[in-house]
UniProtKB/TrEMBL annotation:
This is Transport-associated. Keywords: Signal. It comes from Rhizobium mesoamericanum STM3625. InterPro entries: BON_dom, Lipoprotein_DolP, Transpt-assoc_nodulatn_dom_bac. Residues 2-70, 77-145, 148-215 form the BON domain. PANTHER family: BON DOMAIN-CONTAINING PROTEIN, OUTER MEMBRANE LIPOPROTEIN DOLP.
């Protein structure tokens, strides 16, 4: 696939996605690497644009350079964003109560604290993604799993075998002190994401390094 075709496919996907106003988003393509530029009104749109680009066949990496520029002259104050963030997190059952702290500076939200699972860390960021005034999110929440005697490597490999989308024999799993390293080759971006998800889902995982190649 040529860079010109890939760029057009990404543009078409952005136009097709109803949650995005793609009028001010620019796209360049070079060797399977997509660069997104321009501006959108909300952080949720910025995130949706990246996810839309990832869905396109042939995209191997994305450089995200979209700016968030809220419409109008009113800018939500940082203290108001912080209050709304704390309130929203309190209502999110997947985020442990009082486990996450919030700092806001010029609309940039920083999340800190400790949780036991990666999905809880992701849920915290997802909870505030759509709040008015948020221009970016730094998710610095640490994943500190409960002590476990489970064989993390075995659990991940078993998860791979259960997933119909994955060819488990093509992926090598190495685990050291809660750090999981994935090596091998997958056919599609979705397989790579499925492998990462399975790795993060195992109890005891603190970090995942994805060295999987798409080929």
């Amino acid at each position: 696939m040529t860079d010109v075709t890939l760029r057009q496919n990404v543009l078409d996907e952005l136009e097709f996605e109803p949650s995005i106003d793609a009028a001010h988003i620019g796209v360049t393509a070079e060797g399977g690497v997509i660069t997104l530029t321009g501006h959108v009104a909300t952080y949720a749109e910025k995130d949706a644009a990246e996810r839309a680009a990832r869905r396109v066949k042939g995209v191997h990496a994305i450089a995200q350079e979209i700016e968030v520029r809220p419409y109008g002259t009113h800018v939500t104050a940082d203290d108001e964003i912080a209050k709304r963030s704390i309130s929203t997190l309190a209502w999110r059952t997947t985020v442990p109560r009082d486990a996450v702290t919030v700092r806001v500076q010029n609309g940039w939200v920083t999340l800190e604290g400790k949780v036991e699972w990666q999905y809880q860390k992701n849920a915290a960021a997802s909870a505030i993604r759509d709040l008015a005034g948020v221009v970016s999110i730094s998710n610095l929440i640490a994943v500190t799993p409960r002590p476990t005697s489970s064989d993390v490597k075995q659990r991940i490999e078993e998860a791979f075998r259960r997933d119909a989308e994955l060819e488990a024999q093509a992926i090598q799993v190495n685990v050291l002190d809660g750090k999981v390293t994935l090596d091998g080759t997958v056919k599609r971006w979705s397989e790579r994401q499925a492998a990462e998800h399975a790795a993060w889902s195992a109890a005891g995982v603190k970090s995942v390094e994805d060295h999987l190649r798409i080929g």
